[in-house]
Amino acid sequence: MSGKTNTASKRMYNKKAYSSHLYVYRKNSELGECIREFKAKKGTSLNYLITKLLASHFDTTIPSPETDTFVV
Length: 72
Known about the structure:
By secondary structure, the protein is mainly alpha-helical. It has a domain at 21-58. Helices cover 54% and strands 0% of the residues. It is extended, with a radius of gyration of 16 Å. The two termini are 21 Å apart.
């Protein structure tokens, strides 16, 4: 049952390493349509796009697992 251990370990790491935030947007808006179209395409995730834009806004580097200094 290494799958359960692996899943539990990942869940514990993610809980310690990441924060999540809920955002809302009006479904029947131009922005809503753009978001739905973006999510329908394969490739970059919406999460990565938001992270990239926030890092640019706050003039910081884009965080990545390779640069994490977090110790499990």
